Fold each of these.
Amino acid sequence: MAPPRDTNDTTNDIDRVREPIVSPYMPKYPDPMSNVSKFKIIESTLREGEQFANAFFDTAKKVEIAKALDAMGVDYLELTSPAASEQSYNDCTTISNLGLKAKILTHTRCHMDDARLAIETGVDGVDVVIGTSSYLREFSHGKDMDYITQKAVEVITYIKSQGKEVRFSTEDSFRSDLVDLLSIYKAVDKIGVDRVGIADTVGCANPRQVYELVRTLRSVVNCDIECHFHNDTGCAIANAYAALEAGATHIDTSVLGIGERNGITPLGGLLARMYTADKAYVKNKYDLTKIRDVENIVADAVDVTVPFNNYITGYCAFTHKAGIHAKAILNNPSTYEILDPTDFNQTRYVSIGHRLTGWNAVKNRIEQLKLDLTDEDAKQVTQKIKELADIRPLSLENVDVLLRQYHSAKESSNHLSILETVVSPDQLT
């Protein structure tokens, strides 16, 4: 953290430290169990995302999405089970043969038939799942924990024998009995599973519960830990961060968070959160400038628009409006931005055509237009903008017209009368 600035310091403003301070309340020493600076992303748009209400991806679209995510640098791509349909099988095969840098996974039931189909497609790994909560054991598959453990060992052993990576996950983990969970995780860890998975299938968990469960699991298994969080109650990103703090190694995401019901941890949102924790790690590992492109591809494919307040790419994400905010942003963007828009190939925008505007923001626009006006001129025009904006907000073009008219009139000392003449935003065309 930068030291307090000495009021007698003669250092030029341009030399001032401009890196954002994330928080003075961050831990002074990192938790030795934490993987906040060492995590991997399992991108599940082509599996979980297919469960989104509007989703239908043909093969060409799946290939386009897979290539876009691979270009971003995600570690894994997870695809729909080949047992789901003939086309799902063919798509697994097609994407497995693209030669992408990301490892290709498919997500299957804990069943030997599914495992054999998965191996046939040529994927790099298989994500095996079975429900363990009392709800799912009674109302879904109807199996007890002894059967589940036996079947898990059988399927995992087969997949490992084929030289493939394998993850075993319980479904509805946070409504499952802890003793049951730890027992089955220890059993699969003993036979060499690559990862065990925790799934908040109904989005009921909170960060404290996540931290405690992952920390407990970390103490009983040696393998990696993957976490899958649904967003029904708005905790998916916070839960993912808490999981990494507790020792999880892999997080499942989807583009724009699409998935079953309200979806899962959004890729862009997770990267925004992790950027604030370890910017160098995130920037060096993932191409953050490609987030907007992949989101636009997926949004178009599922017929939705990117939300106005979307992490990083929402059109308001880097828009500043209040006068006090605008002044500080113009002096040092870190005052009101924890993310640097240039790292994401985004642009900062200071809105000035409204009643909350401040003269510093208007002065900045004057400088952008290279108009020869003083601070007092900026204050005069700002007051007029406020008056007009009480009628309706002004577009940037409206503001520019007013500034240019004022500038031209100043040459004949008629600038103040110009302000008196303009009484409606409709005159600024």
Amino acid sequence: MAPKKRPETRKPFEMVLCAKSKKSRSPRELEPEAKKLCVKGPGCSRRFDSGCLWEKLTSLQVPPPCGSIVRALHHHKLGRTAWPSLQKGLQQSFLHSLASYRIFQKAAPFDRRATSLTWHPTHPSTLAVGSKGGDIILWNLGIKDKPTFIKGIGAGGSITGLKFNPLIPTSFSPPQWREQLGCKTLKATLSEFIPAMTPAKPYSKVSPSSFWFCSLDVSAKSRVVVTGDNVGNVILLNMDGRELWNLRMHKKKVTHAALNPCCDWFLATASVDQTVKIWDLRQVKGKSSFLYSLPHSHPVNAAHFSPDGAQLLTTDQKSEIRVYSASQWDSPPSLIPHPHRHFQHLTPIKASWHPRYNLIVVGRYPDPNFKSCSPHELRTIDVFDGSSGKLMHQLYDSESSGIISLNEFNPMGDTLASVMGYHILIWSQEKAGMCK
């Protein structure tokens, strides 16, 4: 059943520090409330089935943490343990810790749904979230002061992409943020690039009724901004907003643009024309100059390179997550069936990578037409292993049970920010006294 559109009325800013409650239970603790399901076998060797929440709970059992991480590190230093084995042990330890993750802060600062979020690249407690009305909240979780709120233009001002300027250090005093932090506007504020402590400056004077940007990424090394618009154009600009080139690379809207973190001349673009294309920015001459074209069965919401740049994660608008290998672009991808269908009044669901481990995090939108769905299925945050496609863990809070569209771990990988409708949820490992 599609979610009902909420009336978009202004309401006062609300931020909640969550108290420890017995109601904040994990999906496994809620097992009696859900119906167990039968999972069908895989269709091929490279296709993975997430199944549903409660089938074969032992398959979701996270391996026990390493007996001693310190010992494992010591053995690695002595050459007795290979790095992949050590990395696997660290990942298992992190997965084990997810059982204690709870929502410890939440906020509802907008009068329209949240549409984008990003963590500061060097300050892991600083978060920016944008809304459909153009509002932006700058939230430093490490201080008790009220988050900074930047008012948008209202209807037609949707923030579809957010990035901090990595070249300019950020001041964390809220009054200075209000005075010094500006928003570089891309095509009449329909997509935002956030530089710290620089004056606002429009990138383009193109009428917003005809064109608007839908995606955004930035490279600190090359000092460029890349973005895609609603008609299939991809534009490369320098940090001052000067346009380097503007080419039509897709037949329809470019929903996502991402630069490879290890090779920033390597660009991936996703589109509703059901393709993801890989480009070399040094050789772009036109729409046919792509290196690879990766066809999909449905429009694509996102394409994210893994932190090491070796994999590409794509999310379509129905029920499929794909993982491509950078060494074998032409080989069939790993397929993870997962319900996250598109709905007009819902922020598109996008899967993302954990910054330190080969893990994928994505919100679940239960679909009655999904082959292994149940009417009692919960709207969880699912964590998959990026190598095997296996569902490793699910986060759930009974007091925040809406559809969670966006999830992103901070650079340290220990705090998760989620977007659920009008709400911002902050997940972290539960510690004694943390939520008191």
Amino acid sequence: MTSKSYVVQMNANGLHGHGVVNGKAAGGAPRGRQGNDVHQVSVNTGPHHAAKARSRRQRWDVRPSEMAVKTRNPIRAIVDGMKLTPNPEKAMIALSIGDPTVFGNLPTDDSVHQALKQAVESQRYNGYAPSIGYQKSREAVANFYNSPLAPLEAKDVVLTSGCSQAIELCINVLSNPGDNILIPCPGFSLYKTIAVAVGVNVKLYNLLPKQSWEVDLEHLESLIDEKTSCLVLTNPSNPCGSVYSKEHLQGILKLASKHCLPILADEIYGDMVFPGCTFHSLATLSSDVPILSCGGLAKRWLVPGWRMGWILIHDRNNVFGSEIRQGLVKLTQVILGACTLVQGALESILLNTPQHFYHSTTSFLKANSEICFKELSTVPGLTPVMPSGAMYIMVGIDIDHFPGFENDVDFTERMVMEQSVFCLPTTVFDYPNYFRIVVTVPEEMMLEACARIRQFCQHHYRPHSQDSSELDQ
């Protein structure tokens, strides 16, 4: 068997391969040199090595990786197994999809379209951008979110392919396999999907429906241990639609400070709050807790398909230091960041979107939420919780009054079959016997959906006084 070695040198001009001669590369570099730009590759040749290589595998046996096997989206895992055959006599009303563009009644502002059109026509954004985003685009985001209470510069901004990638990068940069993260229950299912796939454990802290889905601080603190790598906080909330008060957020920050726990703040619905409510960005309330705040264009600007997100690094005491920042840079290099065309439009979008666009959107969402809350509050067996922001309302099911159903999955499945209304069962959020309604549909559709839900519940509701023989009739 013969063995040949090659040194592959990476420099500004590309790749150069040098054969090894007498212990030195043909280009003069010593054999086995270590460094950032030189890698030695050994290539074994000869019939004996070829025979060994062939003997390793005698048949096809291609299996998915452990990461692929562990990756599980709870929404898809549950919904895909449901029997979702609508009543053919009623048009389908899907109140399950967190995409505000589905029904066409909530278009983005024309200024947003014009910004993208100009970026395309400029022909300046067709190539690769730096993996963390163009400097000018990062400056635009930093300027938009800069606050005396939470100062930001371009170096504190990482642009990502949607808020989902921002969340993924944050979990991966803060956590190792065997660590645990704390996530809200009910909470956005992606946190768990990302963590479990890479061997990070998940602990669910309770939210309290009777207190507008505030965090159960006592329960949260009981879950923290030496392997806890970060706390995930969603405000405003998906799926709950809650918006936390300044005082409640300060209570959460106090716990994080006490236990030296960094926070991943999912603020994709930041400022998407109903008129009369106030959103407090978490970083403006703390000077010592390091916070990675995730956001993006998707929801507030009603363009989820544009895949533009960001991470805002708030670290005034330099707890993260250079290592976390450099870790984020390295992770972005896997897919080279966000869409360059949208990056090119970003400054104009942030500067020129008129305030009346935001107000119109949140006013519509509040009105639809009030319709839904009012209509379902008088339905026996249901308990809606009025939201304060985002695009969702949670509705509790008193499952004991619906003996024909085992749980929320069964309940929502039958509602599709009988009434052609699909609401998301909250088992997908690890919180059974509620369902989530998306309030972005046109008003007349919301009224029709609520009427059908009422009819469905009236048909299946049973008072506790009825015995089992009556229930079967």
